[in-house]
Amino acid sequence: MASLVARNIVKFIVLMFAVSVVTFVLVGISPIDPVQANVGQSAYASMSEDQRADLARYWGTGTPLFERYINWASAFIQGDMGTSLRFNAPVSEVLVNRSFNTLALMALAWVLSGIFGLAMGIVAGIKQGTLIDRIIKGYCFVLASTPTFWLALIVLMVFAVWLGWFPIGFSAPIGKSAADITIFDLLHHIILPALTLSVVGVANVALHTREKTIDIMESDYIRFAQARGMSRLQAARKHGLRNLALPAISLQFASISEIFGGSVLVEQVFSYPGLGQAAVNAGVGSDVALLVGITLVSAAIVFGGNLIANILYRVIDPRIKRRGDAL
Amino acid sequence: MDTQQHLSSVHTHEEAHHGHTHASVSHHAGGHHLLQVENLCVGFQMYETLPQQSSPAKGIACKEKQTKRFGFFSRTTTRQTMQWVIDHLSLSVHTGEILAVVGASGSGKTLLADAIMGLYDTNTCVEGVIYYDGVKQDASSLTALRGSEIAFVPQSVKSLDPLMKIGKQIGGDPARRAELFERYSLSTDVEGLYPFELSGGMARRVLLCTALMGNPRLIIADEPTPGLDLELAVQAMKDFRTFADEGKGVLLITHDIELALRVADRVAVFKDGTVVEETAVANFAAPHLLNHPFSRALWHALPEHDFSFEGEL
User: Fold this and answer.
1) CA distances from residue B202 to A123, B60, B185 in whole angstroms, order as listed
2) Which of A228, A237, A313 would best serve as a mutation to test chain B binding (most B beta carbons within 10 A)?
3) Model confidence pLDDT, tens digit, residues B157-186
4) Which of the listed residues A89, A104, A137 is the one where a domain comes to its end?
5) pLDDT tops 70 at residue B153
6) What domains lie within chain B, and their CATH numbers?
7) Angle at the Cα of B221 (from A239 to B253), degrees rounded to 5?
8) ipTM strictly over 0.85?
9) How far is B124 from chain A (nearest CA, A)?
10) Could A242 and B161 be called an inter-chain contact, meaning their C-beta atoms sit closer than 8 Å?
């Protein structure tokens, strides 16, 4: 058990190191000039050389990438994530502000897509080849081949613009002071982005669950259960669901990373102030400290998801539980 | 359902009826066979693209469908045709005997077991008549029989749910389970084990106990011995022998002719989806006692014989 914990801590540190290095390298080879990108073309053109040099120093464009990384890393180890030049605030502060929105959005989308995807996948798998299976499959294929941002735009047009049921963007009403914002305001604003995100996630979860269900329904133990007098449905209930639990867990936790990816697009379309939107701003503006902060947080969340899946496996699967350490 | 009256309830063992001969242990309890299968056909509906001459229509229960399909570039006619895997197969299991169905692997023997138990896929077409204990059966009555009157012994531990403890998986009355466990020398600890923790021999006995829970009168065993060492295989066969001697019947499906000749009372030779000869094991003593050329070829192929071929197969 102790070695297990140690191994996962080492894995986590290596992951964080690799992600931060890759992010720095990507920003380093990016053709964007942070000074021009953040100041704007016309302002840049009217600046004196001295002002430009000051700004270049502020953005650190003259400093070699390696040196910048070392500076950042030594500060990071001491608990300082640096300052976001774009937001002119400590990275940790931006992350805390933004994380709440994104985590709420992702959690809602994750739970919704998990429940509906699993249910649809099981029904389609057990009823393979029937009309209901074809409907579910068709729905999933259409959704799986739909770009997230496009679906988000359609949803925005229909429900926010034409029907006017939901606001067109942001996480709270415009012009309302923070103290007056109620939970209903927040819910009202989160529904459309969360729904869009979960609708896309559903297709993936449902199709994978369907395949697993079909595999299980064709297994020797389902056939034997039927040979013992159970109906197909009884066998599915008694033996199928139990065996579906393990792949379903992997699937659910693996889908965290996909939901994260989707949230970047959805937040952009709905102007939802979350991590995804901040990541786009940081990337476009070469705000390397913020970008690294966001990538580290998202990598940590995905790592956490996989870790939870592994732990659940050990709790649920007797083959791992009784044989001991297998992580 | 009509009760099938056997032509005569008394006949000598040398006498052939229903196209088969009897062994000394074969009994017609109640004046009929325990299981009688007549002209069983099992087929699947397949799509065929080339328009062909109409195939000989065997289907009574299955309609031949003809549909025109318009593709993007071509117009083809597809027709659902039947692919018959089991074709006019007849066999009978008497009380007190083990009937071995012997045929090559992958020749549709497992399908035969499924058909007798009423386990059909949606695209399967089954025809013919099955009597159990003198009563004509259909798919729903076979469903009611399986698990109680007719029990299935599968071939591997894979037939057990890998995530459920043995005791819970076998289910049923705990007293009956304990009785069977004692009879097959399984310790009570086995109830708390998962399938992956069983040895091959334990798994086989667990599968047998599972089959026997409902007190069946007919066991269908599908290749029960591969993967077992000789001692275990012999033990498995002894268990079937004991079961048959209690006045019950065993249908043993196997590809192993030697095993069949050693433990079975009668052998049904399975070839090309049908039983070409159903005869007492005693008739395998000499080739001239066998009627069908394929049975004689099997005789010659046995290791203690000459490996020679006689004529065309």
Assistant:
1) 35, 45, 9
2) A228
3) 788 888 888 888 888 888 888 888 888 888
4) A89
5) yes
6) 18-47+79-149+216-313 (3.40.50.300), 153-215 (no CATH)
7) 130
8) no
9) 14
10) yes
